[in-house]
Amino acid sequence: MKSICLYFQVHQPLRLRRYRFFDIGNDHYYYDDFTNESIMQKIVKECYLPANEILLKQIKANHNQFKVTFSITGVVLDQFEQYASEVIDSFKQLADTGCVEFLAETYSHSLAALKDQDEFKAQVKAHSKRIKQLFGQKPKVFRNTELIYSDEIGKNVASMGYKGMLTEGAKHILGWKSANYLYCNAINPKLKLLMRNYTLSDDIAFRFSEQGWNEWPLTTEKFVSWMNKMDEKEEIINIFMDYETIGEHQKKESGIFDFLDNLPAAVLNTKNYKFTTPSEAIKEYQPIAVAHVPNTISWADEERDLSAWLGNSLQDEAFTKLNALRDDVLAINDKHINKDWNYLQSSDHFYYMCTKFFSDGDVHSYFNPYNSPYDAFINFMNVLSDFKIRVDKLKDTKESQSVQDELIKKDDLIEQYKKEINKLKKQIVQE
């Protein structure tokens, strides 16, 4: 019996407001609250709540045989608490069924794994703690931002105690091999890898409502028939996508909710498949091979690489300038600075600077608040300039305070020495 691992990524960035050059040094609030709340309320209504309702209904209707997996970023959890607490309640209802697994990832949906291992580990730890607090689960499997993965990243994830990790079943990595098996990390084979079946995943995520697609309309019967054509030796089919696919990327009118509603029964009624979570999969199956990924991959665009975020000089400069501030941010340890530091690390800010407007143009323009990558870069760098001014000011204040504290300590020691000397003088006189 084959397993199906159905996984959804839940994330929305905090979008920056139009931050002008003349705001630098004068206004330290960076976020477009109106846009962030408007978009959040739209997606809550069109995706999160109705999709969660369907999943809960299907888990019960199929007697807990239907299972699903989520990773939810810390950034979107913060927005749920601020704008739509009912969404967190609906995820808690799903968690209470015992049929939903929540994965670990970076709190900020960041690219920290590519730059700073200490920052990477700190974000993952903060995110796992938040998931445990909200949903009562300590994550055992890891999903990096945008499925970004390499042998080295996998080794670092394993060192944090995670047993498994999700990544892309990229064609240039697997070659003739199938994504429908369990693999393992090349450096630390104890880390199991679940590889995304990008064809089946993208049939839903990107092609579902394309009327020009020769397989349109996609029905659950047709989808199951494609799975039935797979090699009988294959073990697990990993269907990974953004949760916003349901009702947002693919609108209600496309029939996507009906598809989701009918999928569990259509799969389970064949008796050939079962739904599984990543933790269950890595316990049940053994890796068939090592996945050698010396160069970093992701699930983005046709290239499946990092070029969506770090593919041009604008992105590289912004990323480098931001990360250069980490040591000072840590030294200051100010709660307001820390909060902005986390939000400014979201990979979305660099994604908006992407200049790839050919085959992937529509993807990069989705929910993009900027008219061009250059506007995104200028706006981010204006914000970053103000952020650096605040960091430098607090750093100087802290250093000044530190110097002052040292002088006070020295003065105290001098006074103590004077007292000791006077005490000795009195003893000598008395003798």
Descriptive account of the structure:
The protein has helices at residues 33-61, 74-83, 85-96, 117-135, 151-159, 171-174, 198-205, 220-228, 256-268, 278-284, 307-310, 313-323, 326-332, 335-344, 348-351, 361-365, 373-430, and strands spanning 2-10, 68-72, 100-102, 141-143, 164-168, 182-185, 192-196, 236-242, 246-247, 250-251, 273-275, 289-291. The protein is an alpha/beta fold and 431 residues long. Helix 1 links the parallel strand 1 and strand 2 (68-72).
What would a concise description of this structure say?
The protein is an alpha/beta fold and 431 residues long. The chain has 17 helices and twelve strands.
Question: Which tags fit this structure?
Answer:
12 strands, 17 helices, 431 residues, 5-stranded mixed beta sheet, alpha/beta, 5-stranded parallel beta sheet
Gyration radius, in Å: 26 Å
Q: Secondary-structure element sequence?
A: EHEHHEHEHEHEEHHEEEHEHEHHHHHHH
**Biggest pleated-sheet summary:** 5 strands, parallel
Helix share, percent: 40-55%
Cα distance spanning the termini: 98 Å
Shape: globular
> How many strands in all?
12
The structural class is: alpha/beta
Low-confidence region ranges: none
Number of H/I helices: 17
- Overall pLDDT level: 92
Query: What is the percentage of strand-forming residues?
Result: 5-15%
